[in-house]
Amino acid sequence: MPQATSSSRRIIYMLLLLVIAASVTLSVFMERTARNIRYNETPLLNTAIPQMRYLGDFESALLRYQLALDKRFTESITPARFSFLENMGRGELDASLAQLRPSLGDGPELGALRDGYQRIVALTPQFERHVDSDPAAARAVLIEMNEQVKLLRAHIDRLQQGVEDAIYDNGGMAHRAIDWITGLVHIFDVLALVTCLFMLYHVRARVRVEDELSHQARHDPLTGLAHRRSFEARLATLPAAPHVVVLGTIDRFSRIIGGFGHAFGDRVMIGLAARIRAAAERSGGEVFRLDGANFAILFRMQCSDPAFGQALAGLRDEVRNPYDCEGHEIYTTLSLGAVNYPQHGADPHVLLRNADAALQAARKAGGDRLEIYSQQLNAAAGERLDMEALLRHAIEREELELHYQPQQSLHDGALIGFEALVRWRRLGQLISPAEFIPLAEESGLIVPIGGWVLEEACRQISVWQAETGQRVMVAVNISPRQFAAPGFLAHLEDLLATTHVDPSCLELEITESVMVEDAEAAIALLQRLRALGVKLAIDDFGTGYSSLAYLSRFPIHKLKIDQSFVRNMHAVSEQGAIVQATIGLGHSLGLTVIAEGVESETQRAMLSSWRCDEIQGYYYSRPLPAASALNFLEGSLQLQAA
Length: 642
Fold this sequence. Notes:
Blueprint: H1 2-76, H2 79-87, H3 90-104, E1 112-114, E2 120-123, H4 125-133, H5 135-218, H6 228-236, E3 243-250, H7 253-260, H8 262-281, E4 286-291, E5 294-299, H9 306-320, E6 323-325, E7 328-330, E8 334-341, H10 348-364, E9 370-372, H11 375-392, E10 400-409, E11 415-426, E12 429-431, H12 433-443, H13 446-468, E13 474-477, H14 480-484, H15 488-499, E14 506-511, H16 515-532, E15 535-541, H17 548-551, E16 558-561, H18 563-566, H19 573-588, E17 592-596, H20 601-609, E18 614-616, E19 624-625, H21 626-641
Parallel strand pairs: 8-9, 11-13, 13-14, 14-15, 15-16, 16-17, 17-18
Antiparallel strand pairs: 1-2, 3-5, 3-8, 4-5, 6-7, 10-11, 10-18, 10-19, 11-12
Helix pairs in contact: 1-5, 3-5, 4-5, 7-8, 8-9, 10-11, 11-12, 13-15
């Protein structure tokens, strides 16, 4: 589009320059032609036309003169005179004229009177008297004068013809000049018309482009829905009438992108957006796409209206229907948060904040549900923000500490090591990991916190080995975000080199979710970690993205059965079967199997009978501060020595 616009502009500029050049050229030619016309017509105006007028006057005077002479001639002829004239020979007539000429002068004009314009107006009295005294001589003079008048008329005709020829020639030149000017004007008109038509086309195209840009400025380019700025502008102009603002997100849409790529995700998003729009508009809703998999819907009703519940139920059912894209059957759900306008806020920012609080509550509840805003949700969201701000300063304020939970071997009951568990002590009170660990994962703070845990665990291993002279194994949880963070391996290598800890004393516990984004890269990193000498374990096995194909390729040492299976395995046979199958799977892969969350002798006995290798839980010991863990370690060493 920009290249086409630039080309059109160049063409317009060229046409305009051509029109300007043609206009200047036309002006020059018209000026030159007008000058030629003036040059050629000046003689006509100054000479030829006055000559024509004078010749006409002279001819008119001659005509009157001739008429007067003819009249006199006819009046002088009597029957007797007529016979005399008939009998007079040519010689006698010439002799008579010769005698008469001296009395008349040199020309017939001596017998005429002229006005101020030299026009002959009458015959002189002398001529009149001469006619009366000698009619025969007068007739001879008249005959001579008529001959001279004929000569004058012939001369006048020649002069008139010359003037007419000059007028015709000059007039022809003028006509040719006028025809040339007319042609130039026609060419200029055609050129101007072409330029105007092209400019009209360009203006029309520009208007279309501006309309398209205006539409794009208000709409999402992928789905065609109005975007966030349009939604905020719409909220700012809401009339003082009940409305419901709904924020929604497609649950786990990132897994679709992770599994099939962004291009596939875009195509799925287009289809889902069309479904959401159709379902919402059936109930009078306006749909906006905010960002990613997040939408906003505006309904002209209240949350308490039965029609609102029906509209949202139809919307969720529409999204639940499987979506077929390129042969893949995609199942999706919607998490929704709703607020009433103006009950829950008249300002757009307040409405969005409250609606987002309701949406986050729906997502935390597992998704695929609708949450209506309440003050408690807003308070909880505010508390989370405050907690996140405090957590960001926890490391620098030295508020984090590690507790160590012992792990026991079921073969001989001996201590095999500890799992390092991070704790946050704020103002003397311990904050539950269930409160701040998910917040750290969500905000990305888990990466610096996880780095601190690794450093502190390595330091503690070094201290315990110096104090007891024994090798102590410590397991550390590694979050998926920490595992995928740039520089994770380099940081671990520097840490082991700085603390001089034997890599085999450090066990890294990872979850299966590290395979979601890039399984091949995860496997390559695990292989480098194993080559480094550290031990590797799969944590919370069976609760995440389980893939036996990838599990067989992971260079790991241990499987850790999640406590959610262990807790009820003695009461729920299905969970007991899962635990037993996991132990058999781990052994078949040559892995050590450890069960966490063991809290009773019954659970320990069942695991022992199923040949589980290790246990961890309150039955053996609660997590202990570093000093208490040292005492536990020394006591265990004393028992082993005994």
